[in-house]
Amino acid sequence: MPAADGRDTIAPVGTSAHARSFGLSDRGHRRPHNEDAFAIDDTLGLYVVADGVGGHAKGEVASQESVEQVVGFVRQGRAQLDALRGDPSRSQHREVVRRLLESAVQNACYMVYGLAELDPAQKGMSTTISALLLVAGRAFVAQVGDSRVYRVRAGAAQQLTEDHTLLNYKLKQGLISEAEARTMKGKNVITRAVGHKDYVEVDTRDLDSQRGDVYVLCSDGITDVVRSAEIGTFVDVMARARALDGPYRIAKALVSLANARGGKDNATAVVVSVR
User: Fold this and answer.
1) Angstrom distance (rounded) from CA 118 to CA 22
2) How confident is the model at residue 170, as a pLDDT?
3) Which of 99, 85, 102, 212 is nearest to 138 (CA)?
4) CA distance 139 to 148
5) Which one of 23, 81, 202, 243 has the lowest number of neighbouring Cβ atoms within 10 Å?
6) What crossing angle do the helices spanning 59-75 and 91-118 adopt, rounded to 10°?
7) Are 265 and 28 in contact (CB under 8 A)?
8) How far apart are alpha carbons 251 and 268 in whole angstroms?
9) 58 burial class (0-12, 13-18, 19+ CB within 10 angstroms)?
């Protein structure tokens, strides 16, 4: 579901045989419009968050188009998902599904780049993509940019994605220290984006998924001001309360906290609880 011009964009609490989910997006206090977008498809088990880049170059177009392209591409691969469900032990089926999700993001990249080539007003638009696909007890993750996917298990939040930012690159290369990173200028400069060129390197991974796991996909409007440990705490409280509307409460709490801490950026959260 793409973000709208209004204050909030929400998706009703979704329910399938295997998961409950909820998505919420808010433009925050400082931004004139919302360049985030998200999608929830409980039937497919597919969840996507995108954070558009470009401002006047239509970052909101890039994020919305990318989300729609990823969902549409995966829907066309239902037979591959069904093959994995029929024989989840075969690593060959898992590899096919992982490549399906990777190709979905690549397709989005090609389409966004093509749109920008056709319209000079959209030149330079691009977006982050964080996608999660839950199939047959597996979690497939695809990542470009600095939105994130977390898995919360037993109260501990694990970041499943790597930030493609200049800050993270310098930290990994040992060019700056943790202390220097906290005050580094341009820390949100991203090194990979969907649509900046006609191809982008997509990080993917495939890991186990268990009943009781909670996944949180969010844009950097949340992760810049909410710590991973806090995300784990929100989820753990809801899990202990066994609240049926837990995904709604968690998403609402995260977005509200981001706004309470300044609301400098658009804030989007998609929360998925595995049943």
Assistant:
1) 35
2) 84
3) 85
4) 14
5) 243
6) 140
7) yes
8) 8
9) buried
pLDDT 10s digits, 117-161: 998 888 889 999 999 999 999 999 999 999 999 999 988 999 999
- Mean pLDDT over 50-69 rounds to 90
| Calpha distance 115→183 (Å, rounded) | 37
Among 130, 127, 194, smallest CA distance to 162 is for 130
At the fourth CATH level, the homologous superfamily of domain 8-274 is PPM-type phosphatase domain (3.60.40.10)
Q: Give the per-residue pLDDT at 123.
A: 85
Nearest to 219 by CA among 14, 71, 23, 17: 23
- Phi-psi category of residue 137: left, alpha or beta, with phi > 0 → left and psi -120 to 50 → alpha: left
Beta bridge partners of 133: 46, 140
Comparing 244 with 206, the larger pLDDT belongs to 206
3-state secondary structure string across 112-164: HHHHHHHCHHHCCCEECEEEEEEECCEEEEEEECCCEEEEEECCEEEECCCCC
How many helices and strands, by DSSP H and E, does the chain display?
A: 8, 12
CB 234 within 8 Å of CB 216: no
Residue 128, burial from CB neighbour count under 10 angstroms (0-12, 13-18, 19+): buried
Exposure on the CB side of residue 82, measured as CA atoms within 13 A: 5
State the pTM of this model. 0.92
Q: Using one digit for the tens of pLDDT, what is the confidence trace for 75-128?
A: 999 999 999 999 988 899 999 999 999 999 999 999 999 999 998 888 889 999
